[in-house]
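Protocol step 4 of 6: record predicted structures for both targets in the notebook before any analysis. Target 1:
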Amino acid sequence: MAAPVMDTCHVSCCANRTPNVVSWGRGGLIAFGTCNSVALYNPQEVRIVDVLNKHTGRVNAVQWVHKQDCSKSFTLINICQIGCLQIFQFQRFEKVIITSLAVPVLACGGDDSRVHLYVQLNGQFQRLLTLSGHEDWVRCVEWATKDGELWLASCSQDCLIRVWRLFAKAATEPVQQTDAVLKMKENVFQVSGDGEFAVTLETVLAGHENWVYGIHWQPPCVKGDSVEQPLKLLSASVDKTMILWGPEEDSGMWVELVRVGEVGGNTLGFYGCQMSPDGFMILAHAFHGALHLWHCDSNQGEWRPSVVISGHFNAVQDLSWDPEGDFIITVGSDQTTRLFTPWTRNGRSEITWHEISRPQIHGYDMQCLTMVGRFQFVSGADEKVLRVFKAPRNFVESFANISLCACLLCVQDIADLPEGASTPALGLSNKAVFQGDLTSQSSQQDSEDFNSLSNQYKESYFQPLKLTEPPTEDDLLQNTLWPEVQKLYGHGFEMFCLASDSERTVVASACKASKSEHAAILLWSTTSWKQLQSLPCHSLTVTQMAFSPNGRLLLAVSRDRTWSLWRRGNPDTDTGDFSLYANTSKDTAVHTRIIWSCDWSSDSKYFVTSSRDKKVVSVGECEGESVTPCSSVLDVGDSATAVSICPYLCSDQSYLLAVGLENGKIVLYKWRPSEDLSSGSDWSRCGETDACQSHTLTVKRLRWRPRPGRAGHGGNEERAWVQLASAGADHVVKIFNIKISAL
């Protein structure tokens, strides 16, 4: 079988905002729901190894199903109904767990603050017992089996955990009661044909300060010829901590063994927890989908944070490579801007991509961005303002350490850069933090009165980091912001798209518009940050813009189904001076629906447009007297929401295009200019993403790496490779390796 054309290099995603969406298998893989998919994560390799795409809606629960002998063979259940055995009528409930003693027992916890036990009789589950004690909603229940007895743990919004023991009465010896012996109350029930059973409350665990959302027993392990269940219970709470509980060897009293968690930040706590099969790693997933992983240092016995993947928790709207192709920046509807780069480790060949900075954490949904230099970008959100950000010293140093680009410190003059940035508690602008601010920070905290307004609403203050590996989620939230250096005012509605020229001297911006007076493109100087020009032409929102690589032309496409081409008067200046060079009207337009995307060929001779009408068209003679379509109309079979032309030619000198579709698939085409356009032979399909590689929702943006080769790799053979980054409405960012020499 031939090797696939597209090889998945990186997948960035996070867990869905539901309590039971993460499960750690005995084979070592962590499965979690991310939007409509199930991602399989290998914590040893620190990367997503596969993505399962079959669902059409959000995945709410994921669970590995194991054999009783603790073997590594397993099945993954992710809420797909194989066959209905019985329908239970409940008003509302949170979670159901099934296990067995002599007959299958089912536990159900719900919003009535009780745990209900059902036993299977004659093939049907019947309620036999109700366990009371919790004073708020029961959020999770989980069984464990030890020495022929069942242990049931339940957690609740009352901040408590209750551990129950279920056993067969016939198997226990009678206990002699005296005045000096206190015996726990037994809840006894009969199962016909199987005898009498009892449930007792073993312990109540109090240690969390907020709702407890998740509990998880340490997985059983094989010792010799037997399977042993350790009595260790992990809990996760909205108070942003996880606690590992267990009984003392001497007294048998349940105590807190380990407590880990995040301090500070603006997260809303943990939704669930899992433990590795060997018990040496514990994992929590948070309200915003972030994974938090700790491992036990076998030498010192201490629990330390581990590197883990991260990603957006809502639709990813735009992405951009830095000019050198060493990292990508993404923006999403989760109101964040994130920066991903390869992690290169000394002495190891593995290279994995990670988020090393979160330059912007905003109060509005992010929509667009463009790079205006290696360490500077402009972003736009659902507001009328554009914001300009520049990297601080701490990021440049950390980036050099993580990516091993030591030459950065020699080339980049960082002497005058601020150390980092912080955000006021009630503000949206990242404020620069300089070295002098750090020295005075502690003294200010000591002298401030708590009753002062500044102390009641403290800003998320920056602490400098010396990173040699990707940061934790807590550091990403608080210590990797970039200072905001400029705001740009001029648009009347929310921002929609941005573009910058190849020299990074001019930025073009457009906002949402339902009338022609609001659909004008604004041009900005990147030196003075003043508005240079307004370019009116379209009647509805401009959906995307692109400058030609030679900087002479600006292309814009719109919801009004037309495109416009603007020519620069003097390309050697940054004064704007753009004039309308060519455009289509409703009468001359090739596209009959919204034009979603556009891009230029690397030689600036051609541009392509893609539309909701499923068509992709190439237009040429951009420097000639007339600008006309120069390709046959390519029907891609679905709404074409993103298009990008590779900056390097294929071995047969044809152009390589990537087209993103509304159904999530990415298709590669080769196009060669031809005089005969009637046959459609100028287009040839040369590759596409398979079911696991595709997005599950709309492809929002495609961008080729501006340099040949794979980021983080070296060697002459790298010129045979190109990389393609994609952003999807399914919250996922993907990077693909493509061997262009083989196409």
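Target 2:
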Amino acid sequence: MSPPPPNYEFQEWWNKEREKAYGLLAPAPDDPSITSSAAADAAWAAVEVRTPTTPGAAGKSRGRSPRQLSWLLFLRFHHSAAVLASLPSRLLSLLLTAARRISSAPVSSSTDSRLYRAIRAFLVLAVLLLLLELLAYFKGWHFSPPSYASSAEALERLYANWLYIRAQYLAPPVQVMANVCIVLFLIQSVDRVVLMLGCIYIRVRGLKPVVAMEYEDGDVEGGRVVENYPMVLVQIPMCNEREVYQQSIAAVCILDWPRERMLIQVLDDSDDMDVQLLIKAEVQKWQQKGVRILYRHRLIRTGYKAGNLNSAMSCDYVKDYEFVAIFDADFQPTPDFLKKTIPHFKGNDDLALVQARWAFVNKDENLLTRLQNINLSFHFEVEQQVNGYFINFFGFNGTAGVWRIKALEDSGGWLERTTVEDMDIAVRAHLCGWKFIFLNDVKCLCELPESYEAYKKQQHRWHSGPMQLFRLCFIDILRSKVSLSKKANLIFLFFLLRKLILPFYSFTLFCIILPLTMFLPEAQLPAWVVCYVPGIMSVVSILPAPRSFPFIVPYLLFENTMSVTKFNAMISGLFKFGSSYEWIVTKKLGRSSEADLVSFAEKDPQPQAESRGLHRASSDSGLSELNKLETIKKPGKIKRNRLYRKELALAFILLTASARSLLSAQGIHFYFLLFQGITFLVVGLDLIGEQVS
């Protein structure tokens, strides 16, 4: 009996995998610490398993033999050994980075806040209580608690008094507060599950908004009835957006819409003169190409983005337009964006807003962007899609949406009273009876903040603004003519549950009450509150982004870490603290540029020969000189990673509480406090997100 033919397909696969593994373990060619004999042995090991492959033998493959499976297991072990071998060097590098960060990094400017002072006092108290409990443990008082009457030593009497005070006066209110937070936690969890069930129902049934008409793909100018296309105003508000202004303007200028039916406003609030000149030059280039685009710059820059948009809507020519599309400076709509959104207004006279979903070009840039992608995927696919389909209301995202101008005017226009002008106009339009539509299948490219500093400032504005708005519009909601169910949804679900209760219980329960219960064992948090329910909610939250399942534990820990920022912002907005009105433009890096715009340009209906005239005209007009500013980097503040003292203080509180939990042998609580404390420490040292050398 002849031997079976060799499995060439497996050998070819094996060689590729072996090369990958060898690349992990093999030393660098110029590494002086590796002898020539060792290098030769490693090279021999990489070559020995190779067998010439035959391309035509792919169809002759069969199952893997035991010998081949043994080699496969060896390869996996080889791979794992390489990863384990690199762990000490990675840990050492992390510790060295942390040491340098502590010695040289600037400290965040919010160190003197009320919340930080309270956390610092809590930390001092936790350390003192830990020292007292350690003394009691070594004295044996944990096993036979002393009574005040029988105590001989002063320390023993002190500990006996502490036991009495904590049992009679401290533990009961802490337990009551814990029970309240548990109830709020369960209510918010039920809300999240209901939203997810609604999303599953929409997906299983294939439900989505239906349009009465559709625009065909292709050239909008070629033999088409232009009057069928409504007049659309496109606005691009920006402020010192040096990194992204070109790509956003270019993406909007090549929208597939009749040029005489569309006008683009570049609303520049930049205070950097060089950036102003660059944006003007870019606008003039597109004007010479035949695009109807205008540049506007305000001399009095009040009201931030709301003031910028309100100023643009006051122009006389706006009355000739029916719809307005808004894109922030880092957003790049696809050429068919208007063709996919505008048709939904046909036959829906009570429709005010069509909102598209965001898509992120840098979601895999680092761990911070991956975790943001999980959060925002749930926000768009679950929260906004479900609310848009079932109740025709959700918060406007401030960009990547099309408004009916009549609805804006009917709702009072853009107001400058909060830092969330998008949510403000959405709530007022809803109270006036207008409806919204969310399109989950229409996506607009944008960027995520890559540094923790930028993300923290963004989240502060996003969580302080809703509380400002709730204070201002609460009476208006009660007096409005909408149905009682819509009033209840706005007050209890939209504002209280999702904007106030969520940051309140997540910070109070996991950052304050849980550490307290370690020092006050008479008050308890069940293991299912600490571990099981948060784990289930993390699984629910990550379902819209299934590729992110490997990051489910970092996501859970990071969300609890961000609760201190969100809680602080919520309190600031609710009680009108000064930081609640702070507006800082989120820093962009211009990640989404060349590749996307090249693909867009291929669909540009204008002939390519026209671009030559554009460049010639630009050169003649002197715009080429302005473009030299692109390569000039103005000297400014040196960019550095920072230290965040609130997060660091909470890290030491949680680590102190985890040490105390060891004395009580509370396993789940110990591990949760330990890993949560480490997460706070990593974030406090700014080791998550963009790292600046």
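Step 5 preliminary note on target 2. The chain has two domains: 113-207+451-586+642-692, 230-361+378-449. The two ends are 66 Å apart (CA to CA).
Proceed to step 6 after PI sign-off.
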